[in-house]
Amino acid sequence: MSGNRPIVVAVDGSESSTQAVGWAARGAQAASCPLHIVSVVHVPAFYYSEPYLAESFRDELEESARRHLSDAKEFAEKSVDGPLNVTTEGHRGKVASTLVELSKAARMVVLGSRGHGEFTGLVVGSTAVATLAHAESPVVVVRGRTSDGRPPVDGPIVVGVDGSENSDAATAVAFEEASVRGATLIAVHVWSDVSVQPVLGAAPEDPHWSRIQTEEEAVLSERIAGYRSRYPDVAVEPVVARDRPVRVLSGYAEDAQLIVVGRRGRGGLTGMLLGSTSNALVHTADCPVMVVRSATT
Fold it and tell me: Do 83 and 182 belong to one domain?
């Protein structure tokens, strides 16, 4: 994610996308990179049965998009102290396809958790899911836990580490984000996909449990050692737990400013582009969630 690639944030005039702009602006300032605000106008195919109607509808949407971009730029500049390199751009086409294309040159793509149009009434709409599944850069779904819907701006960054390629990519991104934001990094390794059940002999004092716990702590230490050397400024808190990954990571969301996970983890089924853990978190976590692809997916 290094370099001067922009943070791309999509706007549609919704309150959710406005909060995403504020989050992205603060991230761009922290990383000393540009912020690129985009809108995408898509006219459904059925409108073209009446060309005049389609043209009129498109003109109306594009006028709204220009207002959204202007308002978003103003909000971004007010969201930070000091200068911020902000650009805006309107696009025509399908929203997800456009964002996936933009992701090829982006540091990350940022989306709100709700929006207008096809987003309405959905926690994470079809456009967001498609972008999460196919983008080439990390994608952040900005979620908030406060009464006014504003996402958190402090607290630790939490990354899920499971030993997969996607997890390694997520770990690299999480360390970089923690470094530029001056945040503590909590590296969470969950070594079982089943709930802790002491009645079945899974109590922590059980010798077998303790041996596996020690082994998994060594695995986590090995997985993050290189990144700790690369980012000596980042304070790291390693956590090894036996539980369900979603439950453990969701628990940290109560205090975190960001959760970072791979697009598809070790337990994902072949062919699934968005794993169960990442999918659950972008729908339910109480803080922004970043989903990171590996170099091979």
Answer: no
